[in-house]
Amino acid sequence: MTATKIALVGIGKIARDQHIPALAASDAFDLAATVSRSGGVEGIENYETVEALLEARPDIPAISYCTPPQVRYAGARAALVAGRHVMLEKPPGASLSEVHALQSLAAEKGLSLFATWHSRHAASVPAAKAWLADKVIRSVKIDWKEDVRVWHPGQQWIWEAGGLGIFDPTINAFSILTEILPVEVHVTGAELRFPTNCETPIAGEIRMDGPDGPLVTADVDFLYEGDPFWRQIIETDAGTLTLNQGGAIMEIDGGAQQGEGWEEPGIHGEYDGLYARFADLLATTSSEVDLRPMVLVADAFTLGKRLDAPEFIDPTLEES
Ligand code: NAP
């Protein structure tokens, strides 16, 4: 198999922690160039802008975007216009309408567009989906709590409109939820806490109904100190399924479900899974764009009551 040349756009935390190692381990892709304002990756050709890359490298057919959502659309559109396949970090854009526009353009041009949800590739998500498939879901309790100062130091874009605030991690929970539940859910209400100096929320509670009434509550917090909670507890007619550590660990009625050969998972396996899926999509020139997690977030903003929270000062920005 000949590896497909790919370019990475935006060499920040997730590009360095996950995309570059996953591409290095992939037989399907060859990292051929980067687009980076800060120099890119040693030994890899770098361009200042997506337009410069597209002009100089017609031999690169696929482009993967790791930039913040607010600056994703123009570059992704330019790539599709130039006939390149596109992969997008989560969330796939700053708004639903811009992702719809990219989806239409990809279809019109006969190109692959992959809106990724890395948490759906966590180790226990497929097993959870399979176990829940024939169950009656009685309730879902999501706890998504982490310390933004530890996990997102210096990422000012998270606090600017379109950066999602606490929904930047919470959308991962919603991506798992919409993947594993055998029923559709919709947001019915929320309380969102906005620091008085930020444009996005830092904490909140979100409620969703299933087909027969109230089903999901989510308690989300970006100032949670200590070990993070990335957990969903799903009560069913046949027992309680708990997905922990962002979908890595599954328990049923308190009993671990990891069978023989199961390895302690890290987020890394999720990115191997994403690039394997992108390779599949390229092989059939098809797209995968499931916007349900983003719809739940957008509806939480639409229906949520806005409450004031104390100012948030990022200590890492104060130090710099
Ligand atoms: P980050 O560390 O801030 O990196 C984003 C990079 O994008 C920057 O380093 C910069 O790279 C480039 N960039 C271009 N225009 C920018 C602008 N106007 N403002 C800031 N950066 C700009 O963010 P990240 O954590 O990697 O997150 C990027 C995306 O990945 C987000 O959508 C996030 O939700 C998603 N994600 C993050 C994580 C995580 O754990 N951090 C996990 C999964 C997914 P150059 O200097 O190279 O241009």
From TrEMBL:
Q: Where is the Gfo/Idh/MocA-like oxidoreductase N-terminal domain?
A: 5-114
Q: Which GO terms describe its molecular function?
A: nucleotide binding
- Report the PANTHER family cross-referenced here: BCDNA.GH03377, DEHYDROGENASE
The name under which this protein is listed is: Gfo/Idh/MocA-like oxidoreductase N-terminal domain-containing protein
